[in-house]
Amino acid sequence: MKNQKTLQHGERFFAWVLLALSLLVLLLSYRISGFKSVSSPGAFPMAAAAVMAAAMVSIVIGNRKVKKPTSEGLKEELRLAARDIFFPTFLIYTGIIVAYMVLIEPLQFVPGSFAFLAVSMVYLKGSSPLKSVIISAGTMALIYLIFSYLFRVVLP
To answer: For residue 92, what are the contacts with CB-CB under 8 A and spacing of at least 6?
Structure first.
């Protein structure tokens, strides 16, 4: 027998917010330069935003078939969602993201992003420190190659 999934508190609202933000990012990325070629400045942001929007449309449609959580209106559902979401792992990882945003300018993109990826994988227990360094180095090398040769952009 198939288990019936129940949405978490605030999940449906959050999906709609993410869909709206994805569409906004798609619009803003199109306004960068339109879609003139694959190597135009707005091409990568448009592709990423299109994937985000398509994924969110799929999730919003899928959520219609899933049982809602029991709550007394939107205000109560959002209060329960905040209680469920803001646990220590979330707050600490938010701090890691803020540190990345602050340090990316002085460290530059490639080393700053490498450090962010490695620290993120270790903190979120995705891999050992050595494995996360190897994966981060490979990821950053791939990003560097894509941006240097496909998009012809010099990364800082």
So the answer is: 123
